[in-house]
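Cast an eye over this sequence plus tokens and explain the fold to me:
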Amino acid sequence: MRHLAKLALRKIEKCIFCGGEPTTKEHVWPRWSHRYLPKVKKKWHALHAVEHLDRTDIEIVKHAGDPLDWQVKCVDEKCNNGWMRQLEDAARPIMLPLMNGTQSPIFLGRRQKETLAAWIALKTIIQEYAPRASKIAHRSQLKRLWQKKLAPDRTWKIWIASYDGRAANTLWTAHPMLIVPDSVAARRKSRRATYFNSEAATYVIGQLFIHLVRSPHEGLVRKFRFHPDVAVKLLTIWPLSGFDAKWPPESLTDIEAGYVAWAIRSLVKGSK
């Protein structure tokens, strides 16, 4: 398989879900989550890397303003204040204890895991439409999220874990990729990606660690594994299992959390 990345800019005139217009700005991270996000800054930097087979091109981009107020203009008012608001309201009481690092036993059943997975999918997809981001989700996945309030089926895998380390800022990562079979890669005129179909992403919100892998290659998603010593600390919330999950599990260390956040690179590089 082949892995490459490219940056993109876009202007969104119609709602990415229902097609309505005009579009309004949507906060990527709701205000109730701000106290759990990285410390407020008036200026911040983001590292963008484009990986080639023989080198990595790195660009440091300076941003003004508070990242907590990050907004993306890609949905209309009907969606923003309708089903998206309802999903936020449903996710909030489930997430707050996890972000607070509760030590009181909590059982996450089917409904809770469905809601968490849908909320994570929504935030991940919204970010695709920000400047310099990478558009990945297929239209059918947006339609499923909008109409059924469910994360994409089979092609996404989402884990959560307890985290109380000190390196949360460095764990926010996104790895957009183009992954195709060798037979397809051999027919391409260039080894450089012209679109993206896969991604691994990590978010840390308070003491809640979130990691996801998505790709149209279902085998990659289904078979993706971590070292057993780390896997026991990760709770798979999507796809759904038939069992309730007890929270909290043993917390990830900084080293373990970093390993999870960057594991996809080792897998893809090893498949070249």
In short: Residues 83-100 form the longest helix (18 residues).
